[in-house]
Specification:
Elements: E1 2-3, E2 23-24, E3 27-29, E4 35-37, H1 66-120, H2 123-134, H3 150-157, H4 168-182
Antiparallel strand pairs: 1-2, 3-4
Length: 185
């Protein structure tokens, strides 16, 4: 008797072109000429006609296999290994950006100073600055210098000048008198 090996789904074996595999099982003769096939050890048998098959629960697979655990550990180690260089890189990037901003500000200051230098090379600008800042006059010119009057601001506003604050010891003595007047002694 020849039987083909079946897959767990009940399908026949997949065949490759050019090869056919047929498995024969040994049959034993039993009295009265009938043959009976015996299942091979450690082999599943199909329950034919013996009633409903008994279902057994397959063991549930673990949530994390050993490979998954090792893979997670490797990823965590890589993440920890890359955090310090990444932090250094980001700090350097911010430092570069700050230095570039400082460089732009310095270039602007240099351009302003160069403009000022060009002004100071003009003799008329030097004369105007001398008259304004140092009160220089040309020979033959009359000088009129106006000084601010500190009392003029108070009289022009129409308000009375503020009374001078009391001296500190007058304030202290008045507070002692007020405390003495309030006490029932």
């Amino acid at each position: 008797m020849t039987t083909q090996r079946r897959t767990p789904s009940g399908q026949g074996p997949s065949r490759r072109p050019g090869s056919s595999r047929v498995r024969t099982t040994s049959a034993t003769r039993v009295a009265a000429g009938r043959t009976r096939s015996r299942p091979a050890p450690n082999r599943r048998t199909v329950n034919v006609g013996g009633g409903p098959a008994k279902r057994t629960d397959a063991p549930r697979p673990r949530a994390l296999t050993g490979r998954a655990t090792v893979l997670i550990v490797v990823f965590v180690a890589l993440a920890l290994a890359y955090t310090y260089p990444l932090r250094v890189y980001l700090a350097q990037e911010s430092q570069i950006a700050q230095l570039e901003a400082d460089q732009v500000a310095q270039r602007k200051a240099i351009a302003d100073k160069q403009q000022q230098l060009l002004k100071w090379q003009d003799p008329e600008y030097v004369r105007a600055q001398a008259r304004e800042r140092l009160n220089y006059v040309r020979p033959g010119d009359k000088t009129l210098l106006v000084l601010p009057n500190p009392n003029a601001t108070a009289s022009t506003t129409g308000d009375q000048p503020a009374a001078a604050p009391d001296r500190w010891y007058d304030t202290l003595w008045n507070s002692v008198r007020a405390a003495d007047a309030e006490s029932p002694n």
